[in-house]
Design brief:
The complex is a heterodimer. Chain A is an alpha+beta fold. Chain A has five helices and twelve strands. In chain A, a hairpin with a 3-residue loop joins strand 5 and strand 6. Classes of the chains: A alpha+beta, B mainly alpha. Strand 1 of chain A pairs antiparallel with strand 1 of chain B, so a sheet runs across the interface.
């Protein structure tokens, strides 16, 4: 080839094309060889697999039952430890709208500001179907995917709750609507002489403000003992403790009971510092912040801060619950039930 | 032609299923996928938001990986099974109560099946052994 190029000028001028062609030919041949080799390997492997499958009797042996039993026992033990207030768990949710109810929230150092968030599934009228915030596209009576939602970001440094019930709805194929119900706390707060009681009151109307050292009357008629400053004493049965609790909520209602140090309209950029969120010290500006991943509030925007925020009969619609700290869930119960369950089903 | 290809695919799948801990791996993968689904956050938040946001991806993703390892490298099934077993239990305190319990339960069942996978005595032999036990 090289020799002929030197001999013939015309052929020498077309030599680069010939070289490229020959290279392409060689590459194609190499690719074919590699593909054939790979195909042979695949064939060899599947032949081996066939032989293996045909020549032996493989399967899960009975010892698997023993291993599963050990696993279930470990899970049950952890469940008991969580329910007995010994083991704390990480519980973080997002995207799905769910209802959150509690008999009484005793929040120490709480902060909040208004924000927008993108949610996979949203059905609230505080959401739009696009990122432009166009109110004409607000989601009403339907569900939108990747909607922009207006929410109040709430951060609580230390929270104690008397009873907790969270309900999320999901539509599954074949089964239809199912509700996931997570309940914790105890059923009876006693005090009114009745043996039964409700974990969650149906509404907060009719509640009475606690006077120093007395009790809050819940809508169910039961009473809940609180301290002089409206706080839940540590002796409250089934008390739920959480720290660094963050809520992403578009609706919250309840009976504000003995709220102190409330500052509405505080600079949104400062409230996390005042509440000592995410590792900060309460009351020490500059030490706290919102958790990573949370859009920081713009300086000068509306912010909320409270030293003490006690709410009885709390009912909220939230998109996300984030625990930067831990939570203890005594008397924990998780149920998946068919149908769309609501607050009344919590008790 | 299509029937032949389907038949071959079925035979190949049956051979694949019989030569590795298929069902155990499948349940483990389903458990991992469920935990990831329950704790699915935008990737940016999961990367920057700390352990509370990334736990689902880490634990659920690892369960998926070990389920796939049990499929593709059945020789390492014991290692994959034991690690998946521990991950399924660890998912309970770290990943939304193990994906509302479903993920942990499926993971324990799947990984136990992986651990227990191996040569089973032939049915005839099993019958003889049973008779011997009864006679004793």
């Amino acid at each position: 080839m090289k020799h002929s190029r030197h001999r013939d000028g015309a052929r020498a001028s077309s030599a680069p094309t010939g070289t490229v062609r020959s290279l392409a030919h060689r590459n194609a041949a190499a690719a074919r060889t590699t593909a054939r080799r790979l195909w042979d390997q695949v064939g060899e492997r599947s032949r081996r697999m066939h032989d293996e499958a045909a020549g032996s009797n493989h399967g899960s042996r009975r010892r698997g039952v023993f291993a599963a039993g050990v696993g279930f026992a470990a899970l049950f033990t952890m469940w008991q430890l969580v329910a007995a207030n010994v083991l704390a768990v990480n519980f973080t949710t997002s995207d799905n709208q769910f209802g959150l109810y509690s008999n009484y929230l005793d929040a120490r150092y709480a902060a909040g500001f208004l924000s927008t968030t993108t949610r996979k599934n949203a059905s609230s009228d505080s959401c739009t179907q696009n990122a432009s915030g166009d109110s004409a596209n607000s989601v009403t009576g339907g569900t939108a995917t990747n909607a922009q939602c207006a929410v109040a970001e709430l951060g609580i440094n230390t929270a104690q709750l008397a009873g907790l019930c969270a309900i999320a709805h999901e539509k599954l194929p074949v089964i239809g609507n199912v509700s996931l119900m997570i309940r914790s706390g105890i059923n009876n707060y006693g005090g009114n002489g009745s043996s039964g009681g409700q974990t969650i009151p149906d509404s907060y109307s009719g509640m009475t403000t606690a006077s120093a050292g007395t009790s809050v009357t819940l809508a169910s008629g039961n009473t809940l003992s609180v301290s002089g400053t409206g706080q839940l004493p540590g002796t409250t049965p089934g008390l739920i403790n959480a720290n660094q609790l963050f809520l992403n909520s578009n609706a919250l209602s309840g009976y504000g009971n003995l709220i102190s140090g409330l500052n509405l309209g505080q600079n949104a950029a400062d409230v996390a510092s005042y509440a000592g969120l995410t590792g900060g010290t309460p009351g020490s500006p500059g030490t706290g912040s919102w958790p990573a991943g949370q859009t920081a509030p713009t300086a000068g925007n509306f912010g909320l801060y409270a030293n003490q925020l006690n709410v009885a009969g709390l009912s909220g619609s939230t998109y996300g619950l984030d625990l930067a700290g831990n939570i203890n869930l005594p008397a924990l119960s998780i149920q998946v039930v068919t149908g769309l369950k609501g607050q009344a089903d919590c008790s | 032609m299509a029937t032949k290809a389907r038949r071959e695919a079925r035979i190949l799948f049956a051979a694949f299923r019989r030569s590795r801990p298929f069902w155990g791996g499948l349940w483990t993968i389903v458990a991992g996928a469920w935990i990831v689904k329950v704790m699915s956050f935008p990737l940016g938040i999961a990367l920057n938001g700390g352990w509370s946001y990334s736990a689902g991806y880490v634990v659920g993703g690892s369960l998926i990986v070990f389920g796939v390892v049990a499929w593709l490298a059945p020789n390492y099934r014991m290692l994959a099974g034991v690690v998946a077993f521990l991950l399924a239990i660890a998912a309970f305190p770290v990943a939304d109560l193990g994906g509302y319990l479903v993920g942990s339960l499926l993971g324990i069942v799947g990984s136990s099946m992986i651990i227990a996978w191996g040569d089973k005595p032939a049915r005839l032999e099993r019958g003889r052994r049973r008779k011997r036990t009864r006679a004793a």
